């Protein structure tokens, strides 16, 4: 696939003041081939089938409302008017993972960076870095939800702040992102559901996170999460369960500056630990867990 055009100063304030938009590229939509669209279709159909009854209602409804379909890779330019109208967010294309501060700046301005390229057919079951399917199918739908949309912007602002405070603060904040935005579960009136993007974009983990006896499922506790290491090369050993997006919003509203200072003096917990104060929904059997490799 050819390299996309680089767009300079995509976001300008009435044509005068350039606003930070580092690393943004135009989605080279015409360059996707039949094979790319076929990968999208295969993953989309498989995940939608799995996610009905597993993903939270807000996620499924938002995906429908955005008009994402299996037929072809969506155009960011077609999704953006809907997103903008719903919550004021917009998608920007990127080559892949951004430097942390750039990522936070985008979120703080309600721009969600979406990797423009999609995985190869031999990577449908596993890919190490986020691609278009993970970013678009996994992350974007919930940006249609007003509460979650606000949470993501608040997170971006919090990220800019944590970046200025230092590396330890960023570690704490990244754990929060990992165990909520990427791998979070939510208790819905009719049962446990998925809202984390890392789960909804993985067929194996969509089942594992809800149905396997191996992992712990523990009630959301922000400070506890900020001290908990995680897995980047396997399913999570622990999932944290929120009651609502409002709970997430309320818990993260206070200024984290004193919290970061306190956490800097405390040890972290292993990814699979169950602690005395935990609200345990399921104590994992630990089947299949690696004994090392938490990050
Ligand atoms: N309240 C946090 C702070 O003061 C920012 C934040 C908001 C972080 C939402 C995560 C999620 O740093
Ligand atoms: Fe992600």
TrEMBL record:
Top-level taxon of origin: Bacteria
Enzyme kind, highest EC tier: oxidoreductase
Gene3D superfamilies given in the database record: Aromatic amino acid hydroxylase
InterPro entries registered for this protein in UniProt: ArAA_hydroxylase (IPR001273), ArAA_hydroxylase_Fe/CU_BS (IPR018301), ArAA_hydroxylase_sf (IPR036951), Aro-AA_hydroxylase_C_sf (IPR036329), Aromatic-AA_hydroxylase_C (IPR019774), Phe-4-hydroxylase_mono (IPR005960)
Pfam families: Biopterin_H
Annotated pathway: Amino-acid degradation; L-phenylalanine degradation; acetoacetate and fumarate from L-phenylalanine: step 1/6
EC number: 1.14.16.1
Keyword terms, alphabetized: Iron, Metal-binding, Monooxygenase, Oxidoreductase, Phenylalanine catabolism
Domain Biopterin-dependent aromatic amino acid hydroxylase family profile: 1-295
Biological processes annotated in GO: L-phenylalanine catabolic process
PROSITE patterns from the UniProt entry: BH4_AAA_HYDROXYL_1, BH4_AAA_HYDROXYL_2
Cofactor(s) the protein needs: Fe(2+)
Residues bound to Fe cation: 134, 139, 182
GO MF term set: iron ion binding; phenylalanine 4-monooxygenase activity
SUPFAM superfamilies: Aromatic aminoacid monoxygenases, catalytic and oligomerization domains
Catalysed conversion reaction: (6R)-L-erythro-5,6,7,8-tetrahydrobiopterin + L-phenylalanine + O2 = (4aS,6R)-4a-hydroxy-L-erythro-5,6,7,8-tetrahydrobiopterin + L-tyrosine
Assigned protein family: Belongs to the biopterin-dependent aromatic amino acid hydroxylase family.
Protein name, UniProt field: Phenylalanine-4-hydroxylase
Species whose genome carries this gene: Cognatiluteimonas weifangensis
